[in-house]
Amino acid sequence: MTNLPRPEYPRPNFVRNEWLNLNGIWDFEFDDGNVGENEKWFISHNFSRQIVVPFCYESEMSGINDKGTHDYVWYRRIINIPHSWKEKRIKLNFGAVDYITKVWINGNYVGKHTGGYTPFDFDITNFLKWKGNEEIVVKVEDQSFDQKQARGKQTWIGEPFACWYTKTTGIWQTVWLEPVSEAHIQKVRLAPDLDNGNIKVNVLMTQKAIGKILRVKIKFEEFDIVETQFTCLDSEMNFALSLLSKNFEWKIKPWSPEEPNLYDIFLELIDDNKAVLDSVRSYFGMRKVSTKNGKFLLNNRSYYQKLILDQGYFPGSLLTPPSEEAIIEDIKMTKQLGYNGARKHQKVEDPLYLYWCDKLGLLVWGEMASFYEFTNDAISQYTREWQEIVDRDYNHPSIVVWTVFNESWGVPSILVDKNQQCYTVSLVNMVRSLDHTRLVVSNDGWEHTDTDLCTIHDYIESGKRFSKIYENKDEVVNGAPANKFTFAEGFSYSNQPILITEYGGIAFSHAEGWGYGNKVTDEEDFLNRFSEITDAIKSFDYIVGYCYTQLTDVEQEVNGLLTYDRKFKIDPEKIKAINDRIV
Q1: 224-237 tens-digit pLDDT
Q2: Is residue 6 included in any domain, yes or no?
Q3: 289 lies in a domain?
Q4: Helix boundaries (H) for 324-372
Q5: Three-state secondary structure along 36-54?
Q6: Extended beta strands in 299-423, E state
Q7: What does the DSSP 8-state code read for residue 537?
């Protein structure tokens, strides 16, 4: 179809050339009585609506724009698969679907996935007819009022309220098909070892790849850095490749926001006849994240983080960025304001956003959408989805921090409750075990347990009052500077870097909606308050970074530096000058 929505390749750090984008018009139906499975809608149903995928039905860009409560929805699409793919295995990929997804192909049940923010796929080969039309039917369940379900900033009372917004139901990222050989690469994990000048590579393949040749090539710009090959003795291969060329003098090119150097890596599976069975390309950045003596280090050097809170909502499309251009513009505007990073708040962001942060140079703090009721089922699913998050995003050099909880959401009694404390500790250590290349924050804002960074949220308006409260570091880390204890009972500060990871939130008096504290009347008032509080934070040597709330307005919350439709409220050069100023 023409004007295909979100036409770009959806998985930019694991690219295959052959694929088929399934975004666009799908048949659609609400199933408020949850009768569709009993009535076998997956075999036959007269769908009464159409929807534009990958936009949720609550959004304008979906073509439906219904803000009502519909906990069960169905999708249907008729496709024709290229006949040249007939000898391949066919994978049906979903970027993200909120929340419980069931899939049928030609009336046959294929599988189920639970979780609203991570990708999944099904091998649909055995269910295809290869005689023209193939039918895909998808059912999604998304309980609107369930606080055990990880929902982040999606309202659970029907209407948006406070800092919770319109919910997202169903497919909200790209759907696509790809053909693969029975012997193919399933996953590539790239761990930079900056200190030793090599890249550690983990390649997971199907069993049919055993005995085949794995060819690997690494390039930087126009330079060939590495070209080698291995015989696959197992379906999982681990090896380290030196990036220090023996043929000519070559220095490692580290990745940073100021110099976002990226290496390209190409992997091919080859059979005995030298035929290429699978070909994948990816990339990596040589960067190291660590801490020392209360400082945050990037590539072994102290680095001051100037972050902005970014919730990733868009007018007209909600959680789904309307286009790749919109993603790029958000990143460029963030940098234009003088920020070197973004704290992606309560959302596992579109992979295209992370790709462009890698390309353009922007640090990212990755964060999962919270649940709000602490139960065994909630923590079980939350843990599984965190594993999928780390798995999906491990290779992005821009991500430097994982935030597993925010402001005690989901663990409301963490200050004193040992069960909730133990869960955050276990989750922090699980993420560390899966990813040693990044830092992990236990509970951003306050009431920390086991954490690599000490992060505090404080929306105090006065820079002078901030300076008074924060003048004694020991009282800050052992007390409750923002009326919440910095550490939970039984846990204490151990020289972690300290950052103010939410502050500001200034709104204008003429805007309908809310911000933090008193509203300001004009640009001069805004800049005076913004400058005073930002300078106060920067005046303390023991504070090594900050995160301003926030990049854009979101629905009823109007404290962004930009409006919801991405218009600057303040001259960005004036904001940048304050961010860049040395105090």
Answers
A1: 899 999 999 999 99
A2: no
A3: no
A4: 324-336, 351-360
A5: CCCCCCCCCCCCCEEEEEC
A6: 301-302, 305-310, 341-344, 363-367, 399-403
A7: H
